[in-house]
Amino acid sequence: MANQYKQIVREGVWDNNVVFSQMLALCPLLAVTGTATNGLGMGIATTAVLMASNFIVSVSRGMITPEVRIPVFVLLIASIVTLVDMFMNAYLHELYKVLGLFIPLIVTNCAILGRAESFAFRQPMPASVLDGLMMGVGFTLALVILGATREVLGSGTLFANASLMFGEVFSIIEFTIIPDYSGFLLMILPPGAFIALGFILAGKRVIDAKTVKNETNELPVLDNDIAIDTAK
Amino acid sequence: MYGRGVVNPSFRQRTAYHAMLLGGMAMITSALIVIGNKQTYADIELRHAEDMKRSLSQVIHPDMYTNNLLDDVIQLSIGNETKNVYVARSGDKVVAVAFEMVSEGYAGPITVMIGINRKGELLGARVLSHAETPGLGDKIEAEKSNWIFSFGGLSLSSPGESQWKVKKDGGYFDQFTGATITPRAVIKAIKTGLEIFKINQSVLLAETQPQTPEIIDTPGTQKATPNTKATPDINAVPNATGTSPGEPQSGTEKSVTDGGKTSG
Lengths: 232, 264
Hints:
The structure holds two protein chains of two kinds.
Chain A: H1 2-15, H2 26-32, H3 36-59, H4 69-91, H5 93-99, H6 110-120, H7 125-155, E1 157-158, H8 162-166, E2 175-176, H9 185-188, H10 190-218, H11 225-229
Antiparallel strand pairs in A: 1-2
Helix pairs in contact in A: 1-7, 3-4, 3-6, 3-7, 4-5, 4-6, 6-7, 7-10
Chain B: H1 4-7, H2 15-59, E1 73-78, E2 81-90, E3 93-104, E4 109-117, E5 122-129, H3 181-205, H4 214-217, H5 220-233, H6 250-263
Antiparallel strand pairs in B: 1-2, 2-3, 3-4, 4-5
């Protein structure tokens, strides 16, 4: 059991990361990552939706028949997103104004329907919620890494305006990395997102290749059947 | 897939079950959204009011008026759309108006909030929303550049109606390197705003009944004298020139404010 949870964490954050491995949810990823703060906000909102949708799908999976599962999932996800949208508008208004259109567009984030379909519909509730959380954390990680890269290169700051969006406490994570920086416009514009994402994906491949080499040297036999299941 | 029917009761296989399931889900989720909406509606309205108040306070200094701008709205119909004009009053005299103007920029509409005093002079202008190129067109934002402050104190007669253009077009205003369309759009929005004010001046500046009946009870001296003095001073543009509203009448203004507040 503990092994399974460990596996879920590992899958969500790294091995089967929504962005770096599944290549899903690229639209919000590329659009909102002008700053690390925006990425963090979008990541948290998406994580909330993922957890809630995985929870509801998993709990009601005995009731939902395979024939109508997709419309039911879409209905559930759309409702959750609408609720998140309203609550963010009311209580995290500054963040809402920045993310704006991309909050309702979480509906179209294929990662959420994908997790409902491929995981939550077949797994018990605790595992599904953990999967939602970890997939969300993985997505948030991708958003923050990409946002931070673009922000540092593009405007020389890191987590700018975090206090404005999340509350005064977060002013401690605001940094000016390069003072008196005139800015590198390309990184803030959409092409910068593609370029930075390309480098990050390449970097992930390099790290994976290295770890696979090390693992095969040390552990020739995998005794974990879950690992074999996922075609490791 | 239908093999499960052997294990599960057959009612799950019927079309009616599927329809009921979808319908039931739709009902439950709709109910949740209704509850969520009820829960957040007031807060969202509040946030929008706060946003509006913040943008209004950037173009009309809060010391200048005593009423609640958000409640004092005149609706002007221009063409086939109505424009909400926020009216700032000191006592029952209109000292300034503020409204939003929209014009088409380089990458979509640019919304500009402008404040105009009784004499048709700009108290200030601020860009509320735009989608211009970061680093080029976004110099119209007050946070990025002080270009937008250059409008303070201007009117249709100064710099003259034909001068409401960027320098490149032979006008008065600076353009930005690499972005001419953006400042052109902002200038057009502000100029059109001033023209709208000029045309509707009589309606906008008409002294209507004050909002709260209590203000009628304040002594006539407070209503009449400070306001005539206040008029020249409202030329001072908040944030732009650094001048604050004049000292002499600030005391009397405050007392009016207090009266307004206790009544409200």
